[in-house]
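Methods — Computational structure assignment.
A single polypeptide chain was analysed. Its primary sequence is given first, followed by the predicted tertiary structure written as structure tokens.
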Amino acid sequence: MKITNRIYAINLFINRAYLIVEDKLILIDSGFPGSAHRIIKFIRSIGRNEKELKLIILTHYHIDHKGSARKLKSLTGAKIAAHVLDAPYIEGKIGAFRKVKNPFGKFFLFIAEILFLYERVKVDILLKDGDEINHLKVIHTPGHTMGSISLYDSIEKVIFSGDTMPPQLGKMGWSRNPYSVNSKMEKESLKKLMKLDFEKFLPTDGKMVLKDAKRVLSQFV
């Protein structure tokens, strides 16, 4: 799906990845394991080659976001970027379930880690709050994980929010995400995003807001 002249959404198993198309290609998140060939097929469908993919930015370490990063890195040579706090989890040095308090969330992440043991991947670029990477500003938005990030594209006035926004965007109220480590921090991270000037809000999971996004997000917050 074409979002702007530079940004595409790639629908995957239960969520999506985003492709930024410039001289080189940038991918934001990589979906579950097994999504690599679908992403490559999409890249080819817009007339580009997968070898032009030079950077994969992971918004956090959960398996539905990092799952195909290792395979894509192997096939394309792209570098992996992620927040410094989440890098040890992406690389498999710390278990993804460790800081999660919800029993269901902890159990699911533990099982996923066993099933997808070999999907750990080295992080080439360590990010922190305020960094600029290929026109994208890194916004540290902890809560879902301690190293969760959002990415701000000031050219298009777009926020790529990863899982910082709960899936029930647009509905009143708040339900805790069973995979999050700190719901209070999640709320503060949303308030932090409200300080930016944006028109579109693009989460990896849940509803995309393609028009008047700041008003919609303001109502939710």
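Note: Residues 170-174 have pLDDT under 50 and may be disordered.
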